[in-house]
Amino acid sequence: MELVSIEQILLASFLKIEPIDARMLLQHVLNESQVFLSTHPGWRLTSQQILVFNQLVKRRAAGEPVAYLIGERDFYDLTFIVTPAVLIPRPETELLVELALERVPIEQYCRVLDLGTGSGAIAIAIAKHRPLTTVIAVDISIDAIVVASRNAKKIGVTNITIINGSWFDVMAGVKFDLIVSNPPYIAEGDPHLEQGDLRFEPKLALAAEADGLACFREIFVAAPEHLNAGGWLLVEHGYNQDAACRQLMEEVGFIRPFSLPDLAGIMRVSGGQLENNF
Ligand code: GLN
């Protein structure tokens, strides 16, 4: 039987895929840490492990995202289950979680709504860090609801309710202190949708009409009637949508809308607050 070491199989795979991807796939196949890989270069793989790893390398070389191949992705300080039914959580979305947590006091009861929750990454990160808060997470996709529910169970949050529905349709008469959303915002027909990981992600979670602004319009118009006085709205958006988001927020009654850049310096999250006597 052929004996192949960690070092040998990694080197061979670097000809086909990025080293960082190869290491993540091998960690997954061996169920070992990054440290184990670097400290055991001579460790021999079983023939089954070689087979499984080589199949994953082939799929990665054909473009499939690493997160879908290994079935998980780290986000904030948690690890989320991901399937092709949901968008892969992105580091820039952690800004939305941080800004949300700044507005939800730790020792007070609050109500938070996450619209278009997908894997549940945003809603579950908020619920985990604010145990007294009740989080409602909504998604139109039943497949996404299944993934978000699995994540809530795995991560062990109980202060969250995950509901199937379209934006506020299932929220008649319900009010919150904070509404967050990372809706689809890429303009339909944008060539990026046909590139990289995006090709494998659900279009429903990525693309929106009206230059990608359609969902913001829908959410912003209905948000004030679902917020308590002084309540906040926070959304993630595309690199060129901050001014449009601030303007739309102002039009529907939010005061002093603001935008903040992500770590790459790209305007990524915009927010607004209702007057205290709204
Ligand atoms: N940030 C994602 C991207 O551009 C898009 C996410 C979204 O549409 N909500 O890859």
**Radius of gyration from the CA trace?**
21 Å
Q: Strand fraction band?
A: 15-25%
For the biggest sheet, the summary is: 7 strands, mixed
Question: Count of helices?
Answer: 11
- Let me know the CATH homologous superfamily of the largest domain: Vaccinia Virus protein VP39
Span between N and C termini? 74 Å
Give the fraction of residues assigned to helices.
25-40%
Distinct ligands, ions and cofactors found in the model = glutamine
Class based on secondary structure composition and strand pairing:
alpha/beta
CATH secondary-structure class of the largest domain:
Alpha Beta
- Uncertain segments are none
Account of the protein in words:
By secondary structure, the protein is an alpha/beta fold. The protein has eleven helices and eleven strands. It has two domains: 6-62; 85-274, Rossmann fold, CATH 3.40.50.150. It has helices at residues 6-13, 19-30, 34-39, 47-61, 66-70, 94-102, 121-129, 142-155, 203-206, 214-222, 242-251, and strands spanning 72-75, 78-81, 111-115, 134-139, 160-164, 176-181, 186-187, 207-208, 227-236, 255-261, 267-273. The strands form three sheets. It has a seven-stranded mixed beta sheet, sandwiched between helices. α7 links the parallel β3 (111-115) and β4. α1 packs across α2, α2 packs antiparallel against α4 and α6 (94-102) packs parallel to α7. The longest helix is centred in the first third of the chain and has 15 residues, at 47-61. The structure holds glutamine (GLN). Glutamine (GLN) binds next to loops.
